[in-house]
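Dear Dr. H.,

I hope your travels went smoothly. While you were away I took the liberty of generating a structure for the chain from your last submission, since the lab meeting agenda had it listed for discussion. I wanted you to have the full record in hand beforehand rather than looking at slides cold. The sequence, exactly as received, is reproduced here:
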Amino acid sequence: MQALNRSLRYDRVIEVCSTFEKRYPESPLLEQALLLKARALIKTESPDQGIHLYEKLIRSKGAGTVQAEAAYHLGSYYWNQDRDSEAKRIFKRLIRAYSAGEWGMMARYALGRIYENDGDDSEAVDYFLTSGEVNADHPLAAEGAWRAGWVEYKAGKYEKARDIFLSCMRNYPRSDLFPAALYWQGKCEEKLSNAEQGQQIFRRLAEDYRWNFYGTMARKRLESSWNLVPDTAASSDQEDQAWYPEPIRPAPGSPLAFHLDRAEELIRIGYLDESGEEIAAVQKQVSQNPADLCYVAVLYERAGNFPKSLRWVLKSKACGSEGQVNIACMKRFLYPLAFWDTVQRETRKNNLDPFFVLAVMRQESLFQPDIVSPADARGLMQIIPSTGRVIARNLGIKDFTPENLYDPETNIMMGIRYLTDLKDRSNGDLVRVLCSYNAGESRSDQWWDLYQQLDADERIESITFRETRDYVKRVLNNMEIYRRLYEPSAPHVGKDSSNP
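The corresponding predicted structure, in token form, is as follows:
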């Protein structure tokens, strides 16, 4: 049932859950099945039935977590339908019953967002900040603290915002939001005419968080001034060619030697799929030596499983971490010039930055040509068949079928054409292009109408959907990392004059 729900097959979820309810009315899993059924009904043409089922679960005498989850999802449904008063009522009731629990924390954050969107900054900040008072260890405590600072920043209350960002960093020094709070503290200092303090903060970000989105944005802010942080990221072609991790040398007769020999032999004779199990066994037993960790990535790469190679390097930190990074390793495994000949040819035709295309492709598919999303988006650039048909018609491709989207050349050509069309209608604004690519043109146009007067960094933070907001940050950061790693050494790289 969970798998069906993740694949967005809601009619089938309803059918399976209804059968489960009839056959196993006393099952301890019944309430979970009913939760799935309610979520599926909400997504179909029967939302009233879903609401009724959620309300039934909320009133039930079963596990409190089920009641809390049902309440949260029902409140979220009302929120997404702009029925804010009903959403507030449910979320407030949920907080009273489950204040510090998972669903109570999520309800508190949702209330903060609702009041923020309503323009009630005082209520929004209160809900965001009390998250930390109720459960400081929950991830939403740090996010609430950051969000409170952002609300004050948007309102032009830069001293208050700066103090909240400072408090956020002090209270949550290990949070992933630390560089975000530091960046916006820097912006507050600029707004308060403390230019030197702002510059110091941006220099710190550029040095200490050089591969992070906010480090990238700080670097771009410094580029127009004399105190740009020198960037030593790029390595020469000779260095890249000379670098190659030494093969793992296990003790003879050890389990590691056994699995490594089998993996190497299976790859050699072309049994690439079969080699995966042996590489996984090698990965479990290999030492933490960076060269050995990188060699596991080489094995996955040679077996034709680039996504697993990339994920392994990220997980094992085989390329190092902030401040101590093996640049050649990054270029080979994390930011490769994948399908470069095709990308280069098609971006030249369309006057598009090839690094922008690689950044989109990396985020969409991790360079996996046969990937399919739950929404049926396919291939390297994650194109849905209906969009593919429109692009094929515009390109004059005859006899198009959805299976064509698994062909790298076709998929890249179509993806680049679609990005070019979006760029043209967005006057070259890459933030708007990426919002359209991820959330659809209609939603992107709404955001543009609301936020076009803001600076690029402010527009990005103002994107309503978390998924799209994070997507835009990741792609733009990917693009800047590609530029820093390869320019000007990348062969025949075309330029795109537009910047976010």
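Two observations you may find useful: The chain has three domains: 1-223, 255-334, 340-486. Residues 225-230, 492-500 have pLDDT under 50 and may be disordered.

With kind regards,
E. W.
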